[in-house]
Amino acid sequence: MSFVEIKENSDKIQDQAQAYFESSASYYKLWGFKVAMKSTTMILKFALILLCFSMVLLFGSIAAALAIGSYFGSYAIGFLIVAGIYLLTTGLLFLVKEKVIEGPILEKFSEIFFNE
């Protein structure tokens, strides 16, 4: 094999390597964009659902506090009972947060980043 043939082959290898790196860079750029958009849309959907649920919870809590207060003859007692229910619920969620909250969130983001 002559020196010219070796040079031509090495030029071809360099061109192919450059094309490979350019296509890999493009692929990872598109993959990053896809992951970023999926994550962003999931967070926005979650925030919108949380906002709607918060509004329902707020007005439902006020209605329940007023109804309980009317039953007991003091609105303050009604609001204190509703606050106690929320305090109890918060304590229970704190005890089971790993299984109920962190696990599903970690699973969903792992699915987005690693399976796609």
Structure, briefly:
The protein has helices at 3-72, 75-95, 97-114.
Overall geometry comes to: rod-shaped
Low-confidence stretches: none
Count of DSSP-assigned helices: 3
> Would you count the extended β strands for me?
0
Provide the succession of SSEs. Answer: HHH
Strand percentage lies at: under 5%
The percentage helix is over 70%
Average pLDDT = 86
| Broad structural category | mainly alpha
Distance between the termini: 46 Å
Rg over CA atoms, rounded to whole Å, is 29 Å
Main sheet: strands, sense, barrel: none
Characterization of the model:
The protein has 116 residues and is an all-alpha fold. The chain has helices at 3-72, 75-95, 97-114. Helix 1 (3-72) runs antiparallel to helix 2 (75-95).
List keywords for this structure.
116 residues, 3 helices, mainly alpha, rod-shaped, 0% strand
Detail the topology: elements first, then pairings.
Blueprint: H1 3-72, H2 75-95, H3 97-114
Helix pairs in contact: 1-2
